[in-house]
Design goal:
Elements: E1 4-8, H1 14-22, E2 30-34, H2 35-41, H3 43-51, E3 56-62, H4 66-78, E4 83-87, H5 92-102, E5 111-115, H6 123-130, H7 136-149, E6 154-156, H8 162-169, E7 174-177, H9 196-202, E8 206-209, H10 211-214, H11 219-230
Helix pairs in contact: 4-5, 7-8, 9-11
The structure holds cytidine-5'-monophosphate (C5P).
The site of cytidine-5'-monophosphate has 14 residues, from β8 and α10.
């Protein structure tokens, strides 16, 4: 599995998204489509971007009863995406059902990645709102191990946690990591940030990069800089 840079297409319309992608005339970046664009444009935008030759991480973070997630995953798999995700909090039964749903008749399937605890959750919120009293990092690693035991391919985590995830779940288990910024860039609302080069040293398998590329004066140059720092 090669390391790669995934651009987060955090746009609210197909027009803005395609205008952004039109700037890439020489390469076809791996892209992430999240709830905003998917809910605005529906599955058609996924098919259109796939038809343009991009790999797609469909970031919809499913979390429901196992049977519903299984059937929803079968639909997403039919869109021919390359990677998708769910919440590990949905339990192992839900993750196993999701894998069954994702697997196509020919045995192939998109990569399936788990969200552990969102980075917007902190210890106090977890204790007060969802009555989880264990330390947050233990919860994250437990969820990662449950995902690995269920047969998933990896987790979304900080580059700072990639090493721990690999030690607990194996080196083939993917650490897909947002929170990436250039050394001379603006962190925005991300709190714990890492440069692409540092993410590579820490063992990230894929970095997910949004605004440092989408809001750059020259997005293609910013993407190339990310690739050269991260992939080499
Ligand atoms: O613009 P920026 O580089 O911060 O975008 C990062 C992307 O990764 C966004 O789509 C964001 O929703 C996503 N993400 C994140 N932190 C997580 C999980 C997902 O920033 N813990």
């Amino acid at each position: 599995m090669g390391k790669d840079v995934i651009i987060a297409l955090d746009f609210d319309s197909k027009e803005k998204t395609l205008a952004f992608l039109d700037q890439f005339t020489e390469e076809k970046p791996f892209v992430k489509i999240g709830m905003e664009l998917f809910y605005a444009e529906g599955p058609a935008v996924v098919r259109e971007i796939k038809a343009r030759g991009h790999k797609i991480f469909l970031d919809l973070k499913l979390h429901d009863i196992p049977n519903t997630v299984k059937k929803a995953m079968a639909v997403l798999s039919g869109l021919d995406v390359d990677m998708t995700n769910l919440h590990a909090a949905g339990t192992r039964a839900m993750m196993e059902a999701a894998l069954e749903g994702l697997t196509r008749p020919d045995g192939t399937r998109p990569l399936l990645i788990a969200v552990t605890q969102l980075t917007s959750t902190n210890q106090a919120r977890m204790e007060q709102d969802i009555l989880i009293e264990k330390p947050l990092d233990q919860v994250v690693m437990h969820y990662a191990r449950c995902a690995a035991q269920s047969g998933l391919d990896g987790v979304v985590c900080s580059p700072l946690e990639a090493g721990k995830v690999h030690n607990a779940c194996g080196h083939g288990f993917l650490a897909v990591t947002p929170g990436v910024r250039f050394a001379d860039g603006d962190a925005g609302d991300q709190v714990r940030v890492t440069t692409p080069a540092r993410a590579r040293e820490l063992g990230s398998d894929y970095i997910v990069v949004g605004r440092p590329i989408t809001q750059a004066a020259d997005p293609v140059a910013a993407y190339r800089r990310c690739v050269s720092e991260f992939v080499g």
